[in-house]
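Lab notebook: predicted structure, single chain.

Context: the supervisor wants predicted structures on file for every construct in the current expression panel, including those that have not yet been purified. This is the next one on the list. No modifications to the sequence; it matches the entry in the shared construct table.
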Amino acid sequence: MASEEAGRLSVSDRISHQLRENIISGKLPPGTGLIEMDLAAEYSTSRNTLREVLHQLGREGLVTFVRHKGVVVRTLERKDVRDLYVARRTLELQALATGELQQPALLDKMLAAIRAAERALLKENWQAVGTQSLRFHQHIVSLLKSSLLDEFFRTISAQLRLVFASDPDEKRIQTPDWIQREYHICELVMNNRRSEALTAMTRYLDDSERMLLEAMSRVNRSFR
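Prediction complete. Output recorded below exactly as produced.
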């Protein structure tokens, strides 16, 4: 988020944004407890403000309120994945179908995210690979030039990060193939090849959804 945009947000919105970003980056994995008093001290704000923030994140499906445990970062289920991909297809395919493709600053951000994912891959930092992939897809949605949809997709990205974390070995889902496919989509966008970009993204999302559902099934079987 640009600093000038952040400056226009309320205190609670700024904290919500930061906590959401911490989920996207993997700093707050599923099951992490969010303690009002500690967060109020960290962000130098009142517990009432933090309570408002946590209820907002609850409405976004990012945290849950557990009896006798308080507020924890949510663990997502298979049905949540299907809902997320309905939203992803709606936003990302619409962005490629109707968005303004030739936005140099945005295209630079797409490339930067992919290159950052490549650097993370070389270091075998699988969590960072996934985070940069989410950044790339955030920039795809930004082709629509809608701050409202941008903010909505940040919530989708945060929920996707929680899905990624459902597999203890994220290496199994953050493979080099996804980076190459993102490069290909980015190249199609840069060359204004809208129809081909749509086809490539459709296949990407179909394969991604299937892979995540298989990963969740694998993890569920391991606990039986």
